Amino acid sequence: MNAPAQSIRPHGPSAISLGSRFGAMLRRHTIGALILLLLAFVAGIEVARPGTVTPIWISNILLFAAPLGILAAGQTLVMLAGGIDLSVASVATASAYLMATHSSQGGSAAVLWGLGVGLLVGAVNGLGIAVLRVQPLVMTLGTGLMTEGTLIVYSQKLMASAPRVPSFIQSLGSGKVLGGVPIDLFAWIPLGFLVLIGLPRTGLGRLIYAVGDNREACELAGVRVWQVLFADYIMCGLFAAVAGLVIVGGTNAADMSLADVYLLPSVAAAIIGGTSIFGGRGGYAGSVVGALILTVLNSLLTLLDAPEPIRQILYGAIILLLAAAYTRLTD
Amino acid sequence: MKKDILYACLAFGAMTVACGGPVPGLAADGQYVVGVSNTLIGNGWREEMVCSIKAEALASGKVSKIVLANRNGGPSEQIADLRNLISAGVDIIILNPSDRKALDPVIKQALAKHIVVVAVDQAVSAPGAYVLSNDQVAYGREGAEALFKALGGKGNVVEMRGIDGVPADADRHEGFEQALKKYPNVKVVASVFTGWSPDKGSQQIKDLLGSGKRIDGVWTSGIDSMIVDAYKSANVKFVPVVGADNNGFIAQMINDKDNGLTAIAVTNPPAVGGAGLGLALGILSGKKEPRVVHLTPRVYTNANARGMDWAKSVYDPKVDPTYPVYSGIPPYTSYTPAQEKACKGPGEA
């Protein structure tokens, strides 16, 4: 569904200036524009603080971007279907916490507990949104709060036994191999390819776009819309659960507010990447670059010697500018 | 009010101390009802604070019941909670205030009903309320001084603060600056706000480590074990790190000493909750207490035997790494660590 932007706009080789020809090219290859932007940010960091952009820095950026990228994968999937999932941060936190408190039962059992949370909350979201037709924003906000509350009760009942992060999860979230390749890429890249290839090439993937584009038309055409949405939210829940495991591997400590900082960035990464919040348009490739841009931005703000309010204003303003620029570019 | 008590004494005879002293709230069985107001849940420090109140209530033997108003909220929620506690007829209110001034009117209402009000952890401006808190300026200063001393009085340090605009963060930064003035050869090469988020702090230190800046020491406002972990995963030689009395950091203090880690822990005990109750019970039994009690934090380093002994005595492998280690604050508290860990108040099974 990236197609409309290409086909609607006429771009003949007539007397157009170099600038607008460049603009037209960007319009056709929006992902190229995003990558250029990312490179511009990286160049900006190197100019502002020479010597920053080193192999270690790049490997760190990839390490930090992976959990955000995995969260953004789920967010992109539900946004393409015209929804949103505000429970991803709570699910990621709950997944990390349940995994850590069950680590004494062995690694695979612990991971299954974590993924189970994602499956459960995803299924509840799916049921509410697909079958009961609750507004996604309200539904997922509600389930997010419920997840958080349940987790607090669970943790309070559990004062005596501490959550422990197993060493393989620690390696997953903070380890590097082959002289600097972050191990969490081995989770992100396969999952990412699954989404990248699955969206345009599988029936489910194409139906997600179709439902987001026009739900009524899909229903009239005999698509079982509820099944598409149900599967969509379950996938999003599972992605959030995986992201939670990666995040807790990075901090080595399960905290009740562990993934809170990822909620809005997961939406922002998808939007910066060109996925429409109204559904039907966009794709995961953009979200990947969006996640990288946000991570580079965070790094820039850490290394920049600026007061905290200035950093916050910059962060917000840049995200706004990017989203606005993208809309201008594609509409 | 006095008249009521007088009549009660005439009717039942002088059977309780309530008739003798200014203790209007004392129940017939000599037991008090304690109200607790906390507006941040799911946070390890606050959870332990509530547990320490329960433990002290049980250990003192003077409390019949705890009424707990525990939810996430701001001043308006807390005002409603405090009103409910007053209507519930409590004798003591222990609160961790969400605002210094906003709660004053409702605190005045409580004081008018002869309820003993103790604000713990943070101050309230209402006259008549007691305040018992950890001295956060000293927290910043003592930890920073220990760090600068460990660096031999010179070097590059990173200051990893909490949340911008929060009083505790401002106070700790003030203390940090005081220490900095005494050590002119110490340079702050980066000052960042972790937001007290383990994930954010972890990314920030990794960013700083990868930036090529020379770092000789790290001061943190409590996001501590993540810093040591970041050094481990980056395979960089340890520098001295200042943290809090968090269980995970204490574990590193003990276990990574032989790997070259100098860890300095500054205490910020959540037991201020239980201590606040101890203070209130003392007042009700006729003791005179100052209106404001500032507890000076203690500093322990794994560089000496005293620090190591302390670390080994408080570390508990069963406790969450982000939770503070369990401890009492004598003479205000009388409970055992086991009672605090059990987190059961009077009448709780």
Write structural notes for this entry.
The complex is a heterodimer of chains A (about 325) and B (about 350). Chain A has 15 helices and two strands. Chain A is mostly helical and about 325 residues long. Chain A has one domain (about 30-330): ABC transporter involved in vitamin B12 uptake, BtuC, CATH 1.10.3470. Chain A has a two-stranded antiparallel ribbon. In chain A, a hairpin with a 3-residue loop joins β1 and β2. Chain A is globular and about 65 Å long. Chain B has two domains: about 1-135 and about 270-295 and about 330-340, 3-Layer(aba) Sandwich (Rossmann fold); about 135-265, Rossmann fold (3-Layer(aba) Sandwich). Mean pLDDT of chain B is about 90; it is low at about 1-25. In chain B, about 40% of the residues lie in helices and about 20% in strands. Chain B has helices at about 1-10, 45-60, 75-85, 105-110, 135-150, 165-180, 200-210, 225-235, 245-255, 270-285, 305-315, 335-340, and strands at about 30-40, 65-70, 90-95, 115-120, 130-135, 155-160, 185-195, 215-220, 240-245, 265, 290-295, 300. Chain B is built from twelve helices and twelve strands. The longest helix of chain B has 17 residues, at about 45-60. In chain B, the strands form two sheets. A six-stranded parallel β-sheet of chain B has the order 2-1-3-4-5-11, sandwiched between helices. Chain B has a six-stranded mixed β-sheet with strand order 7-6-8-9-10-12, with helices on both faces. In chain B, β8, α8 (about 225-235) and β9 (about 240-245) form a beta-alpha-beta unit. The interface of A and B includes residues 57, 175, 259 and 260 of A.
Task: Give the arrangement of secondary structure elements.
The complex is a heterodimer of chains A (331) and B (349).
Chain A (H helix, E strand, L loop, with lengths): L2 H6 L9 H11 L1 H19 L6 H26 L7 H14 L5 H25 L4 H21 L10 H8 L1 E2 L3 E2 L2 H17 L1 H11 L1 H6 L4 H27 L11 H10 L11 H20 L4 H23 L1
Helix pairs in contact in A: 2-3, 3-14, 4-9, 4-10, 4-12, 4-13, 4-14, 5-6, 5-7, 5-12, 6-7, 6-12, 8-12, 9-10, 10-12, 13-14, 14-15
Chain B lengths: L1 H11 L19 E7 L5 H17 L2 E8 L4 H13 L4 E4 L8 H9 L3 E5 L9 E5 L1 H15 L4 E7 L5 H16 L3 E8 L4 H13 L6 E4 L4 H10 L6 E4 L2 H9 L7 E4 L5 H13 L7 E4 L3 E3 L3 H10 L22 H6 L7
Parallel strand pairs in B: 1-2, 1-3, 3-4, 4-5, 5-11, 6-7, 6-8, 8-9, 9-10
Antiparallel strand pairs in B: 10-12
Helix pairs in contact in B: 2-10, 3-4, 5-6, 7-8, 9-11
